[in-house]
Amino acid sequence: MDIVSAPAEMPVDVFAEMRASKPWLDAIASHEKSMARFHEVCDRVDTLYADLEKSASSNAQREFQIFWSNMEVLKPSIYARAPVPIVSSRFKDRKVLPRHASEILERALTTSFDAEDIDATMRLVRNDLATNARGVLWVRYQMDQRGERVCYDHVDRKDFAHETARKWGEVGWVARRSWLSREQGLARFGTDWLSAVFGSRTEQNDRDDQTDGKQKASVWEVWDRERGVVAWVSPGIEQVLDIQHPFLTLENFFPCPRPVYGTVERGTLKPVPDFVYYKDQVEEINELTARISALAEALRMKGFYSAGVEELSDAIEAALRKTDNNAILIPVPNTAALGGAALKDAIVWLPVNEVAAVITQLIGLRRQLIDDVYQITGLSDIMRGATNPNETLGAQQLKSQYGSVRVRDRQYELVRLARDVSRIAGEIMAENFQSETLLAMSQYDGAPRQAHIDQQIAKIRGRIQAAAAHPQLVAETLANPAAKRQAESLLQQAQVEIGTLQGVETLEKVLGFLRDQRMRPFTLDIETDSTIQPDEYAAKAAMSEFMNALSQALSQLAPMIAGHPDAAPFAAEVLKMAVSPFRTGRQLEASIDEFADRMKQAAGKAMPDPGKDKAAIEMQKTHAEIARIKAEIEKIQAVTAASIAEQMSSAENAA
Question: What is the spatial distance between Cα 313 and Cα 308, in angstroms, rounded to a whole number?
């Protein structure tokens, strides 16, 4: 019997032990069980906030819509405008390579945010945070007929799951649910998808009155950090639909940042909607509103007079049934029924003073409950625009600052979410996007191409080789000492030019730096501008402060440089330090860098050579350099003024 030896290396299914979907489905079911109460409360809160059928019904009980009003004040207070990505060098040494890289990445992120309408997604997350105390955003890398792009998806609270933990850092897996039709599932997962549990549901909502009639099944995309895999599982299917190593290499593994949270139970990640803290007050307010409405219906002028044969009880009942707002007189059998009153007292009116008094008391009680709600929620009068015009500006500013204390944490949460999304999107772009895609998105031409540098180097070397190709010319040059020195000088100059060109930071070097996962996180820092509506007066004050600081620095440095040109390097560093605390435009930062470098170069050129008697010439050079430095100062001031005007205009437009 022939024995066939096995190959040295057998193919191994590294996912063999993770093919069963039950462990992941059980973990998701455990999470859903622990969050069942949260979803139940959120369903009631969502209905209370907006229910078209209930609100439009003519038989609906009168309610005081204080919860809706509070939400409409809170939402724009915690988020009002789209985030603006800011990519800068982590260390303020202003090196050329990180500056080019940050410029490309920042422009690409700005284009992506605008093209994918991240503002709409952020508003959905904000609404979830305001009403349900949690909002989730998911980042995707997609390549289709539109090209490469980063997508920013809002995830419904019922379509998000994670490992039960005390804090986000302990979470080992996260999952997102999607709803796919038979055709979509077959195209993605093959025939295994036919075993899924199908039902009439939509991708966005599982309410019975919001179904579109299409049969769809759910699939969970699970990112398991502990196992280092991404798996797709669906209820009813025993095996995983797909499992693979992460197709995105992200610093924190998960393609979603930490959700934005409001109040959470201590020692858990279970959110607690704000409404539960003043639910009792809202219910009492609505009950009082219903009473006031019912009593107001009975608050009409109605009386009785003697006539006909009706019984007095029938007359009173008829009076109460009348809903006409005009005064109504009801006839009664005779004056005896009214107690034998005289003619002047023949008309008897139903008492309304008592009803009016009760309504007044109910309105006062309801007002007190509304004040209690404001105390609990922290929505002060200054946030609702109710302020005393006789108060000083300082008093109103203190009120405004105090009123924003209660929402400041949520403002920071949304700013933090925007920053984390920017970092994830930046990682995806830097490591997955083609170079041409990045350059097309950024429209950046601040650095030359390597091919252009190679052409210039080739031209220089070509001139050298062309000169060396003529033996007679070389011999004549070597025989003439003056010509030899000139040739050596030209050769040295060419070598310096080649070295300078080789040290130029080209686009290829910049893109290579962006793709270097080891260096990029330590060199570049990604932040976002505030997502809160800017204060126009505060923006103007900040710009004025920046102008004063820059003007003072320039006015003090210019005379020092004029008197001591060798102090230019020190002055350049002082200027950078003076403007570093302020957020300025990229163009102004580059101008400051160039100006500082020129000051250093000017100092080197203006330094007199003690070994040569050229004092007059050097003095002229010094004055020329000083004049040029003054011109540079004027240029910096002009660019600064233009940058400030542009930022103030942007702030006014945003306002």
Answer: 13
Count other Cβ atoms within 10 Å, centred on residue 382.
19
Backbone angles phi, psi at 218, to 5 degrees: -90, 145
Does the pLDDT value for residue 485 go beyond 50? yes
The helix (H) or strand (E) run that includes residue 299 is: none
d(CA 410, CA 398): 20
Q: What is the DSSP letter of 469?
A: T
Cβ contacts of 550 within 8 Å, gap of 6 or more: 578, 579, 636, 637, 640
Cβ-proximal residues to 338 (8 Å cutoff; 6+ apart), any chain: 304, 306, 312, 332, 345, 346, 348
* Length in residues, the chain: 655
Run of H or E residues at 93: none
Half-sphere exposure of 188 (CA within 13 A, CB side): 17
Tokens of 7: 């190959």
On whether the CB atoms of residues 103 and 526 are closer than 8 A, the answer is no
- Whether 575 and 596 have beta carbons less than 8 Å apart is answered as yes
| Cβ neighbours of residue 171 closer than 8 Å, sequence gap 6 or more | 162, 163, 165, 225, 269
Rounded to whole angstroms, how far apart are CA atoms 344 and 194? 89
pLDDT tens, position by position, 333-390 = 555 555 555 544 555 666 777 778 888 888 888 888 888 888 777 765 445 444 555 5
Residues 466, 410 contacting (CB under 8 angstroms): no
| Residue of 230, 220, 80 lying closest to 160 (CA atoms) | 220
3-state SS, residue 231: strand
Residues 81 and 78: their CA atoms lie apart, in Å, by 10
Q: Which 3 state secondary structure label does DSSP give 585? A: coil
For the record, the structure tokens of 474 come out as: 């070389």
In contact, 565 and 603? CB cutoff 8 Å = yes
Least Cα distance to 411 among 76, 117, 157 occurs for 76
DSSP code at position 291: H
The three-state secondary structure class of 515 is helix
- DSSP per-residue string spanning 422-466: HHHHHHHHHHHS-HHHHHHHHT--SS--HHHHHHHHHHHHHHHHH
User: What's the half-sphere exposure (Cβ side, CA atoms, 13 Å) at 220?
Assistant: 29
Residues in Cβ contact with 284 at an 8 Å cutoff, skipping those fewer than 6 apart = 369
Geometric angle at alpha carbon 461, from 460 and 465, rounded to 5°: 125
Helices and strands, number each (H, E), in the chain: 21, 16
- Residues 304-318: pLDDT tens digits? 555 544 455 565 556
Say how far apart CA 155 and CA 153 lie, in whole Å.
Answer: 6
Residue 201: φ, ψ to 5°? -145, 160
Do the beta carbons of residue 350 and residue 302 sit within 8 Å?
A: yes
Q: Among the residues of 564-614, which ranges form H helices? A: 568-579, 586-606
pTM over 0.70: yes
Q: What pLDDT was estimated at residue 19?
A: 83
Q: What are the tokens at 605?
A: 């050129």
Tokens of 226: 């502990």
Cα–Cα distance for residue pair 601/511, rounded to 1 Å? 30
Residue where the block lists tokens 């050579």:
609
Helix (H, G, I), strand (E, B) or coil at 150: strand
